[in-house]
Amino acid sequence: MSFSVLSIIYLLGSVTFIIGLKMLSHPATARKGNLIAAGGMTLAILGTIFLYEHNGERLHNYGWIFTGLLIGGVIGVLAAKKVKMTAMPEMVSLFNGTGGACAALISAIEFRHLSENVVTTGELLTILLGLMIGAVSFAGSMIAWGKLNGRIKDFAFKGQHIVNQVVLAVMVICAVWLLWSNDGLQVHHHILFYIVLVLALLYGVLFVMPIGGADMPVVISLLNSFTGVAAACGGFLYNNQVMLTGGILVGSAGTILTILMCKAMNRSLKNVLIGSFGGAKAGVAKEQGLYKAISLSDAAVVLAYAQKVMIVPGYGLAVAQAQHACHELEKQLEEKGVSVLYAIHPVAGRMPGHMNVLLAEADVSYDKLLEMEQANAALPTTDVVLVLGANDVVNPAAKHDPDSPIYGMPILEVETAKMVIVNKRSMKPGYAGIENDLFFQPKTSMLFGDAKQVLQQLISEIKQV
């Protein structure tokens, strides 16, 4: 009877995951979708704790289980409440890495447990896949976390791509050897298993270490899909339908998002998988000529008397925590009869959807957010483009400079608008470390200063226009 009830609970949990994922596709329903999926997960966890049976026995170590749940829950809640939007990408990497670590630990524990009994080839294959993918996700996510918060610098050496592929090949060969010799696990099989674990951790580090600049959203998305696949392996191992469904959803969604990110970056998925993108080319500053600055009062007049304004948010907006001031500027301009829209590049910021989350926090209407293709179609009829902390995603060098590290990357073509105002703290190059040709074009004016302070001052000036 308990098995039937547990099966129904797992089915309900799986359905809530699917519904929640669907609702996450729109900001208006994302919060509710997240709660629905979390409710389904809570139901599945409690069902497993109290109803799961194996050989007629149920779980009995409730003290350890609920202590772990309590500690993890408190840490998660406090981290989510205290994290700033600028630190959101690194928190995503950290939490994703812990998911990969859990999958790898499950494989290690089950390998020791099953090795005492008869292990089928299918079980061993599932264990090895969970181990390798989970360990790569953990190690890679930890490196990504360190790089995003500045603790780890980009590092690459000559021939690293070859080393990466050799490490990957040796790891796979060891895993295949372990599967091929599965005739009763001996001591040397255990040694081989942990060699696979070490190689997977090493590959995760080498895979992410050279990646830098605007490529970081791609690797975060890819590692997220790895964690999902590793979790799905655990679902196969335990014959747990809800764990399997959740893992498949995360893995497939992460893979699709990775492909979309690669398209937005003009990168091939093959290059992502072998770790041959990111820090391969170093940005070289070149002589561009003179740039033109604009005062706050002049910028306010230009914006107030425009008919159509396009705002391009970037990581600088997140750093300054200026999303609410940006929304206030939008409202002030609309009171003046100005049409205000936002142009969102797929890889703006440090993680997929970073700008969407940032603006949603400030209650900016989703209907005002234009995707890159829509924005580029509307830019030629735009009077003023206000670029707030974005750099590489508006750099025209991506279209006409074959020597640029971002050459071929689709960008927001803001230079086609009638006028461009760029807000930056200084003329320092962006995250990819390259100069931006846009800053030196005749139609571009630079408005220096912290994004939040500049926007607040613009609002005051516009009220007086």
TrEMBL record:
Organism of this sequence: Chitinophaga rupis
Annotated membrane topology: Multi-pass membrane protein
Transmembrane intervals: 6-23, 35-52, 64-80, 92-112, 124-146, 162-180, 192-211, 218-238, 244-262
Subcellular location(s) of the protein: Cell inner membrane
GO MF term (any one): NADP binding
Alphabetized UniProt keyword annotations: Cell inner membrane, Cell membrane, Membrane, NAD, NADP, Translocase, Transmembrane, Transmembrane helix
Highest rank taxon of the organism: Bacteria
E.C. number: 7.1.1.1
InterPro entries, sorted: DHS-like_NAD/FAD-binding_dom, NADH_DH_b, PNTB-like
Any single GO CC term annotated in Swiss-Prot or TrEMBL for this entry: plasma membrane
Designated name of the protein: NAD(P) transhydrogenase subunit beta
Sequence ranges assigned to domain NADP transhydrogenase beta-like in this UniProt record: 8-460
Reaction it catalyzes: NAD(+) + NADPH + H(+)(in) = NADH + NADP(+) + H(+)(out)
Role: The transhydrogenation between NADH and NADP is coupled to respiration and ATP hydrolysis and functions as a proton pump across the membrane.
